Amino acid sequence: MSGKIPVLEIFGPTIQGEGMVAGQKTMFVRTGGCDYRCAWCDSAFTWDGSQKATPMNASTIMEELERIGGERFSHVTISGGNPALHTGIAALVKLFQEKGIASAVETQGSFWQDWLLAVDEVTVSPKPPSSKMGTDWSRLDTFMKRLAEEQAGHHSLKVVIFDEKDLAYATQVHERYPDVPFYLQVGNDDLEALEPARLRDHLLEKYEWLVAKVMEESQLNDVRVLPQIHALLWGNKQGV
Ligand SMILES: C[S@@+](CC[C@H](N)C(=O)[O-])C[C@H]1O[C@@H](n2cnc3c(N)ncnc32)[C@H](O)[C@@H]1O
Ligand SMILES: Nc1nc2[nH]cc(C(=O)O)c2c(=O)[nH]1
Ligand code: SF4
Ligand SMILES: [Mg+2]
After folding, report:
1. How close is the Cα of 197 to the center of ligand 4, in Å?
2. 45 part of a folded domain
3. Is position 239 within any domain?
4. DSSP-based three-state secondary structure for 100
5. Fewer C-beta neighbours within 10 Å, C or N terminus of the chain?
6. What is the residue-averaged pLDDT of the chain?
7. 218 is in an annotated binding site
8. Residue 44 CA: which ligand is closest?
9. Are 29 and 73 in contact (CB under 8 A)?
10. pLDDT tens digits, residue range 222-237?
11. CB 36 less than 6 A from any atom of ligand 3
């Protein structure tokens, strides 16, 4: 298994629907396995046993990206699951650098990998109370410190918000790492919705609620509030 990466899906090009480079045209590589079990995880198929990951090495992943994306991409986002569980991603990030492909990673900040330092955009997404997960603050401190001191690219924090307790948690995260660009993201609480148009209305109402809350809060002046654009466009569809 050494060097192999468990891959759940490879798709794109699509737009990055979330966070610091929202709107960026990108391919996705989604890894299998997560050390968390968030109550509202929209990608639970990466860890609940419902779908099976394929162990792949970096060059095979690159071939698959090129087979699907052709000449139509110059940016790849690695998500999961938690991609930071996998040491084999070091070789993939190196391949991207050699080919002049920009890279991004989505992770919750619970596990460190040195290859994170070579990723252009690292999104760190600590989990609020509604997820039913706890935050190991000293681990997160170490994680954020290494990014701040050694990462060549950019990084940001992104907290998903379902309710007021989540917003209080997000404020705590923002105050702990005040120099890190901070994103608040609308939580999707209807993962069963099949009709994109209905989900869109529902999520936009939640976005309106979140924007109004943030406007009231003096501790959240320097933040960005975003919905998941892909959920607005395509609902709960996988692979978009
Ligand atoms: C599926 S996770 C995979 C990467 C990593 N495990 C993490 O959580 O950061 C990607 C992003 O989707 C967010 N997310 C997951 N379920 C969500 C939901 N129901 N509504 C809004 N965002 C969600 C996560 O918080 C994270 O920022
Ligand atoms: N379009 C699109 N943007 C995304 N941003 C983060 C995603 C993820 O699942 O990590 C995601 C995803 O699954 N699709
Ligand atoms: S950390 Fe990310 S992938 Fe893991 S359960 Fe939570 S949202 Fe899902
Ligand atoms: Mg997603």
Report:
1. 18
2. yes
3. no
4. coil
5. N
6. 98
7. no
8. 3
9. no
10. 999 999 999 999 999 9
11. yes
